[in-house]
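thread from #wetlab-drylab

HS: before we spend reagent money on co-crystallization trials with glutamic acid, can we at least see a predicted complex? here's what I'd submit
DV: go for it
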Amino acid sequence: MTDRPVRVRFAPSPTGPLHIGGVRTALYNYLLARHTGGTMILRIEDTDQTRFVPGAEDYIRRSLEWCGIQLDESPWHGGAHAPYRQSERKALYMQYAQQLLDSGNAYYAFDTPEELEAMRERLKAEKVDFQYNGVMRMQMKNSLTLSADEVQRRIASGEPYVIRLKVPLKEEIRFTDLIRGHVVVQSSTIDDKVLMKSDGMPTYHLANVVDDHLMEISHVIRGEEWLPSAPLHVLLYRAFGWESTMPQFAHLPLLLKPEGEGKLSKRDGDKHGFAVFPLQWNNPETGESSRGFREDGYLPEALVNFLALLGWNPGTEQEIFSMEELIAAFSLERVNKSGAKFDINKAKWYNQQYIKEMSDEQLAGFLLQELDKQGLMCSNEKAVLVARAMKERITFIHELVSAGRFFFEAPVAYDAETVAKKWTADAAKALTAFAELLKGWQGEFTPAAVKTSLNDLLAQLGMKPGPVMPALRLAMTGSGGGPDLMDILTICGREETIRRIETAVKALA
Ligand code: GLU
């Protein structure tokens, strides 16, 4: 089945915010779809009514949009296989469960939760783990052990029942996972999974396989946590007689904790102070809010680039990839087998690179938005200059304002340590003279021109720049460090520079 058109799906359950690992799964599906000219499908798997969380579906949609992962078929875009929400496909699953009942691949089971629990307890006493499987099913209350009349009577009287898969006793289940290689499992290790629940809803396994078949999915690309379910899914394809069009499986390596052991969880993010969700999420039920990469200041392009290389490698040294480049380079063969340690510093590095690569004008656009959020203002031209001066020094857009606040506001205080070390009476005298010089300034106020006249002035005064420059920086910014001093002066402007020098000389006298 290698020549089928590629049709892949991302199949999240709307049980909460989309974890960053889910975003990566969606991304790999998308990259394969676009690389092969195939189709990217999104299906909402919402058959577990007890785990439904309002707002989660909308969150999934907004997250994918923000990341630039485009869908061809989905609940929101429609498509030839609509509906794409499993809760809207309910009737269909019963029909397929019936097919398995008719062919003897499934059976009705009437065991109550209490009876199952009692059996579990009984076996526990004998140190045996209870499994509803090929051996046990003959001791339970189901359509294999009850007479046909009895089964009909129970169903007619409205007694609750589930439908279970009749897993063959001794069969070898083999399939090839595109990432993990050959997988062989004995059917005796698989229990008779419930396919239809007593509420008339299908379980994940049944709905997932039926839909993948009906939606003509060619590749199932999903997280490694679903690998244990794959043999059961293969059995279902067999039971339905769909083996010849069964999708190929590709189970992606886990995203691991920064320490490298175990799956990355929200708790790791909380512990180390980073997001594990693409967007901020406000839990409508608990009111709890979880941070998002977007709100933390990550650019979607940087996050996507970071995630793409977390589990996939291009086989070259190249690290920076636009979405187009990822699409061109991506293949499942280069997805790694082992888990990928989640290193937030790498994500930060990517963000830095993308900020550096932005044009001054583009970055200025982000800066103006950020200023607006904080109730600050500045002209377009100035924003471009600030962007240029700060570009190499920041990891996040919001640092343009936090680390470059002095561009927009005169310092309201001076860092005590810097004052103690750098502010001297001589420097104050030189700065006062410099302010006087600026008052009579003629010509363009450029970094080069300012630097030359400041140096000339210091030479006349018989002073070296060494002790004066840090004091000037202190007057302009309130602290030490920051971008080029002459840039700061010219961006703030001549009059503002005079004002700040005079204020500092007075305040620090
Ligand atoms: N609904 C499953 C999930 O939440 C989908 C797993 C799969 O892709 O088969 O991840």
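DV: The CA atoms of residues 310 and 340 lie 6 Å apart.
HS: ok that's useful, forwarding to the group
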